[in-house]
Amino acid sequence: MSLVNKPAPDFTAQAVEKGEIKDIRLSDYKGQSILFFFYPLDFTFVCPTELHAFSDSIAEFEKRGVKVLACSVDSVMSHAAWLKTPRAKGGIEDVVYPIVADLTKSIARDYGVLIEEEGLALRGSFLIDKDFIVRMEQVYDKPLGRSVEETLRVIDAWLFFEKNGEVCPANWKPGDETMSESAAGIENFFGKK
What we know:
CATH class of the largest domain: Alpha Beta
Number of domains: 2
Oligomer: single chain
Radius of gyration: 18 Å
Distance between the termini: 40 Å
Order of helices and strands: EEEHHEHEHEEEEHEEH
Number of strands: 11
Largest sheet: 7 strands, mixed
């Protein structure tokens, strides 16, 4: 079942951010947009490429007022060790956003991305709006790395809709034409009178 248009499942868990272990509650970020994403496991192959890609683009998320958080079913100690491992050795040293530990797998289960028989999560990404409602859900299988560019495009479309009340067609990017939700707006978009 999709979480889109539903309240984001809240949680309290330990996370590592810039080498510091701390307790976080997702709803503490209510009032700002959140990109919350899952990855399968620490110390793997595709996962560090994604974590670095999101971290390398953190300024783009911040510019949009979006807080980024990652999560896997590993322990907070595993996250901390991986954060101390250099990029050249498969580590995620210098990743700047919190990485949540979900050792009980309850968070992945609540978000519908847990592969029960394997005990790990799919690559799920969730855009949560300022009111704590899930607005975007993308789920990929384990071998498929995500596109940060596409994630930012979807965030831009949602933020544009929030601000202007106009919907964004396929492949929309900032500056492209949008569509009013009214029938007149749709007719105008398609050139009908």
